[in-house]
Design a protein that fits this description.
Layout: H1 15-30, E1 38-39, H2 41-50, H3 56-67, E2 75-76, H4 80-90, H5 95-100
Antiparallel strand pairs: 1-2
Helix pairs in contact: 1-4, 2-3, 3-4
Length: about 100
C-alpha cells in the first residue's frame, strides 16, 4: 500500500515509508550522471538495476508511462515524486532489502 502525501502533511505516514521514500529520492538523484536535473530512460533504468529489478527495462517503460507527465522523455525534478510513488508501489516495504544486496 502506498501513502500519497504532501511534504507538509507527514504526521500519519509511517517512518519506515518516509525512510524508503528518502532513500529512493537519493538513489534516483545519484543516477542523474550528467547533473542536468532530469532523468533519462537510461538513468532511470540504472536506478532499477541498483534496486535489483529482474526486468529493469520493463520497469523503466512503466515508470515513464506513470511519471513523465509532460511526455518529454525525461523525468524532471517535479515528476520525481511520481517516479518514487511508482517504485514504492512496485516494491512495497522491500526497498531497503533490495538496496542491501
Amino acid at each position: 500500500m502506498v501513502f500519497f502525501f504532501s511534504k507538509r502533511d507527514t504526521k500519519n505516514v509511517p517512518t519506515s515509508l518516509m525512510a524508503e521514500r528518502a532513500e529512493l529520492l537519493s538513489l534516483f538523484k545519484r543516477c542523474d550522471v550528467n547533473k542536468d536535473g532530469k532523468l533519462s530512460k537510461e538513468e532511470v533504468k540504472a536506478g532499477f538495476q541498483r534496486l535489483q529489478s529482474r526486468f529493469p527495462g520493463f520497469r523503466t517503460h512503466r515508470a515513464f508511462k506513470v511519471a513523465d507527465k509532460n511526455g518529454d522523455g525525461f523525468i524532471s525534478e517535479t515528476e520525481l515524486e511520481e517516479l518514487v510513488d511508482f517504485v514504492l508501489d512496485c516494491y512495497e516495504g522491500k526497498v531497503a532489502l533490495r538496496l542491501m544486496k
